[in-house]
Amino acid sequence: MKSRRILAAILTIILMTALSPTAQAEATDEKATPSGIPYSEIGSGIDAYIAEREAGMASCAVSVYDADGVICSGYYGYADIENSVLADADTVYDWGSASKLLVWVSVMQLWECGQIDFDKDIRDYLPEGFLTKLQYPKEKITMLNLMAHNAGFQESFYENQYAASDDLFDTLEEALRFCECYQAFHVGEYTAYSNYGTALAAYIVERVSGTDYVTYVHKNIFEPLGMEHTALDPRMADNEWVCAHRGKLHCYERYLDPRDNRDYGPCIAFLQLFPAGSAIGTLEDFSRFGRALVETDCPLFESNATRDEMFTPLSRYGGTEIARNCHGFWTGDYGVQTLGHPGNTLGCSANLVFDPASGLGIVIMTNEQGEASFNLGLPGLLFGDIASREGFKDTAIAEECDISGYWRMMRNIVCGAGLANSFSIGPVTPFGRNDDGTYSVKLFGISLNREVKLVPLNENIFILRAGDATQVYYYGDGVLAVAETDFVRCNPFWTVIRYGFVLFGALCLLTVVIKLIVRAVRKKRVAGRNHSLADRQILGQQLVYGVSGVIFTAFYLTYNKIPAFTAVSAILAGALGLGALVNGALLCYNTIKSNVRLRTKLKQYSWAVLSIAYAAFILVMQLYNFWSL
Question: Residue 523: how many CA atoms within 13 Å on its side-chain side?
Fold first, then answer.
């Protein structure tokens, strides 16, 4: 194993540094990738890259192609580790959010034949009164807004609900009505990645084509491309072969330390808003779709002009010429501007990336949730590093462009249930400046992840480097923009309150446990030390804080995984809040009537205030938010 890793490292160094793109091209006239690897050596380069990282791998399927066909493909690792089932051509993986590309290609097909007008309000294609949570109903929402993810929809608990198969709605219309989320922003105000908006576009495809979305995609994409081993229906009812093979795939979390590994079994996700992420299929089929996007005569459209239109930018970073979104395709952060879409489910991750200029593309599929080394690193192997790209040369950053502070992600919940979760670390990102001018994720000056750095490349342009992943950030007009979402500055007050509340709950629970242990151990009470009514009320409030801290933590851990717990947590917290309100009022009343020393009164008043404050917190952050949903 050691010699294999040394060989892999040598091969990687040779491919990435020793091979000059111009020297290779001049010597052999052979095509080379933007990073400088001759086409004939792409396969060995991928082999070396994966071998170097195989210790933390379940399985990875890779196909590299261009307009002329497949250049190389390979399967690495196990579809089922415990039973030593190797990944092969019959292994199927989830596309995840890469499924959205099927929606946008469908939309472009209908635009091409005049059935969808990009200037029309989408409500012209929907049933009367379909959208009920628009906060700005007078503002027109077009299909282009849905494609660019700037229609104003906030995140929602139910957007990607992982339901049981029997709980899925029978139609996309029913799912959209049930899963509707608030339009929290003005149209075009922010970019905020939206699963709901994508599923809404798929429903419009149904409405204007007169056929259900699954049937439309099979007829107009899968069948013309010969994609016989891909399913789109959320139950996989449209492809029995895929359904049978998906049950054989095991999904994992894999780490260098085997003690951290997790085996989730088949881990099949049944999505209510299935157009946003339910495609499942083989590497060969995924590659067929990728190749169709770059072929000389695109088989997906009547005219290549439609594809050219699809690849034109809908949004850019600030006032620059740097494309951000091209009709639903996100731009990639490499040595050349790429297009594509990554995807993740609870069990799989995938990515489709291609260079529209050269036609070179790659598709990656793995059975690990959130896998990044291959999905984000392998494209970099082919397309190079963004620092070498025109307009991204290293330069000194302007002092007035300091982005230190707390940034709240707009792909978020800003009203309704789940509002409290939007103040956690993740939705709120604290950036702090380092001595070398770079930025790290820092909380109160303490670095939370030293491997993640935001590096200034040009004025207003930064590059996030996190392991094998790179991503452009642009700062302008008070907004920090990354491809799929905007960030705005925020006050960390509620973030501190959120974590402070959980910490305080944990301390209260610990106090209660200690008190109960002490009471159980002591067989006799010391004379004159019987607990007063106020003492019992304080103990009760400590128990309330402790239990609610557990509920709040469970709520965070199950967020968007067990949506039913949203209602359960709100009801439990609401009951505790009402109990705390009564308890606080009685404690305050008993303290006024009692004849105790001032120190004891202050302690009892403090707990009375904490009881009432807790009730207010619950009313605002739980009951009100749940009611708003």
Answer: 0
